[in-house]
Amino acid sequence: MSAGRILALTQGDPSGIGPELAIAAYDAAREDARLPRFALLADPDLMRSRAKMLGRNVEIASCTIDEAADIFEHALPVIALQARARGAPGRPDVADATSTIESIERAVALTVEGRAGAVVTNPIAKEVLYRAGFSHPGHTEFLGELARRHTGHAARAVMMLWAEELAVVPVTIHVPLADVPRLLTRDLLVATGKIVADDLRRRFGVAAPRLAISGLNPHAGENGTMGREEVDVIAPAVADLVAMGIDARGPCPADTLFHAQAREKYDAALCMTHDQALIPIKTLAFDRAVNVTLGLPFVRTSPDHGTAFDIAGKGVANPTSLIEALRLAARLAKPGQTE
């Protein structure tokens, strides 16, 4: 395997389950050659300490990205960060914010340079980063800023949660529910829909993507009797997307959009709020769903769960979502697709 196909995996919050998920994913990949190989950007001493705590017999080897493919067969390749990480399980520390951010920045840099095939991120604790001065609402928005830094072009990052049976996109993400009507604009919906359709074609190989656009209000507003957003914002945006040649329909009542027969009629559902999108996919595929960032000049995936501080260090965290994130990243990062 060439160095360019190695995936760059971030450590996430070192006090969360990210480090032990990385170890579990490495063990799974050693047993199954079909799983993708990766290099972890982390504090090697943290990883050795966590492996010892968990009683896992895994060798941790410091290396460069170019050495990772050869090392992977006998040791977990770790690209050492400049910032040390304390990482006491279950006890998040604002002092570790520097290493968390450095891990993401370096993973993106390696991928943009073509030395890694894709970025896969372990969960971060936004509240911890906020206390350290982090100014972005979340991972997705930070990745958009990193793309701009590396390419000089603004990138509108779009969050998609993907599983084999459902793909959903929250049009508004990490904002209070009370702010959604103000933030939900025709331009935002059109830009989001175009990015989703483009990346479904470019990354996922869907020749003619079908988009279902949810309503915001109950029953999609009942023709304006239960809210004007569907009439004034969502329906005109759907018409714009159709005029651009995109197969889009809506606004659709959200409560009838996710049953099995409905899901057969679209490739992705654009939802107006964070929870409107995440509740159905976490109900259908809690352990298997993958967070994919669309609209970037590189592939980024992540497990669809948080840091789980309550179980960190106990060795009970389920690595399935991370393994699926690695698998999907390798599938999307095909030769010539990382721009």
Description of the molecule:
With 339 residues, the protein is α/β, with parallel strands linked by helices. It is 38% helix and 16% strand. It contains twelve helices and twelve strands. The protein has helices at residues 18-31, 44-54, 68-71, 97-112, 126-131, 139-151, 180-183, 186-202, 229-243, 260-263, 274-285, 320-332, and strands spanning 7-10, 38-42, 60-62, 76-80, 119-120, 158-163, 166-170, 210-214, 247-252, 268-271, 290-294, 300-303. The model is unreliable at 335-339 (pLDDT under 50).
Task: Return the CATH architecture of the largest domain.
Answer: 3-Layer(aba) Sandwich
Uncertain segments of ≥5 residues (pLDDT<50)?
335-339
Query: Number of DSSP strands?
Result: 12
As an assembly, this protein is: single chain
CATH class of the largest domain: Alpha Beta
What is the typical, i.e. mean, pLDDT? Answer: 92
Assess the beta-strand content as a share of residues: 15-25%
The CATH superfamily name of the largest domain is: Isopropylmalate Dehydrogenase
Query: What is the helix/strand order?
Result: EHEHEHEHEHHEEHHEHEHEHEEH
**What about the largest sheet?**
12 strands, mixed
Q: What are the defining features of this structure?
A:
disordered C terminus; 339 residues; 38% helix; 2 domains; Isopropylmalate Dehydrogenase; alpha/beta; elongated; 12 helices
